[in-house]
Design goal:
Layout lengths: L1 E5 L2 E4 L4 E9 L6 E7 L6 E6 L6 E3 L7 E6 L4 E6 L8 E8 L12 E4 L3 E6 L1
Parallel strand pairs: 2-11
Antiparallel strand pairs: 1-3, 3-8, 4-5, 4-9, 5-6, 7-8, 9-10, 9-11
Length: about 120
């Protein structure tokens, strides 16, 4: 499975962006797909994940209520709708696919496949 993340850009605080993660080879309908982010000098941080069926989603406390993850398995695409963006959301966002157990969904090493990352910059 190869993943391609897109949709990043520059936005003012309070604005919105929608990121996409598309599988260009193979299918990830049976995988859990997550978004992580990384800022300069910081470790990669879990943002959100969606189970293969799309019925279960999980969010970090820092984005809960502002971000929404969804998936369209027919299109092999996962979306991350980001609203009410804050400057602290500035980071490179990565999508990843794997089959972690529930207790491990926030750990980046539980995901096998990674996209190349897309930059999100939120200006104050």
């Amino acid at each position: 499975v190869q993943l391609q993340a897109s949709g990043g850009g520059l936005v003012q605080a309070g604005g919105s962006l929608r990121l996409s993660c598309a599988a260009s080879e193979g299918t990830f309908s049976s995988y859990t797909v997550a978004w992580f982010r990384q800022s300069p000098g910081k470790e990669r941080e879990f943002v959100t994940t969606i189970r293969w069926s799309g019925g279960n989603t999980y969010y970090s406390d820092s984005v809960k209520g502002r971000f929404t993850i969804s998936r369209d398995n027919r299109k092999n695409t996962v979306y991350l709708q980001m609203n009410s963006l804050k400057p602290e959301d500035t980071a490179v966002y990565f999508c990843a696919a794997g089959r972690p157990i529930l207790s491990s969904i926030t750990y980046s090493n539980m995901y096998y496949y990674w996209g190349q990352g897309t930059q999100v910059t939120v200006s104050s």
